[in-house]
């Protein structure tokens, strides 16, 4: 009898919590996931083409590159042909709030780190949808606030805590509390509110927020890598090449101007180059 009642109320709680979870991609824009990816079904076996975007999260030139690559990734089959990485520009500085100096301030460092967390814990398609969401609208706006990153993650269908993104961004303690609250809400039937009202304050002038340890490590690693490969401009696009003599195709957007893009700089140009490189890596 008691057991039956418990089962009933549990079922009710589950039903509430399920209906409270929003449909992914339900507002602002429906970037990549709306696009069919036949490659996902049939699979492109073999090696992928390494592509790196060297960026800064609050840099307008970076936004330009990322927007072109949004179109590149929408192109049929490309998602399965690339290994796309975002790398960040900055200087290691142990006196800085997050251990790195970023050109557009500490809040940019936070934004960089958030994007690295998204990239590390979600599939490319979802990561890129969240990235495009962050770039959308009044740029650079609230980039670097947890509020914006979390909203963009959740509208891209990413479960903030279960994915590991939330823990990376906010740290271990916040993740423990967050996951507990999420579970409790589901059990008590109050429903899991994925986006409380207070998150609407995406205020770039708010005090600096705590940044998780994993996020800091990823940021430091990334800026070190960028220094090591000698990239000094955001945005720099690098496509690893087995066809070109110097092994890499580099292309820069500087002050809104494309530079050194021998193979062109439209989405169609990048698609063509990537397909060519992929075919060279995966001869039939
Ligand atoms: C891509 O980069 C990884 C290292 O990040 C390297 O091990 C791999 O060989 C590269 N692949 C190609 C095809 O260049």
TrEMBL record:
Primary location class: secreted
Subcellular location: Secreted
Keyword Signal: yes
GO molecular function: oxidoreductase activity, acting on a sulfur group of donors, disulfide as acceptor
Keyword Zinc (UniProt): no
Coiled-coil intervals: none
Signal peptide location: 1-20
One of the record's GO cellular component terms: extracellular region
Keywords: Glycoprotein, Secreted, Signal
Similarity comment: family membership: Belongs to the GILT family.
Protein name: Uncharacterized protein
Species of origin: Apiotrichum porosum
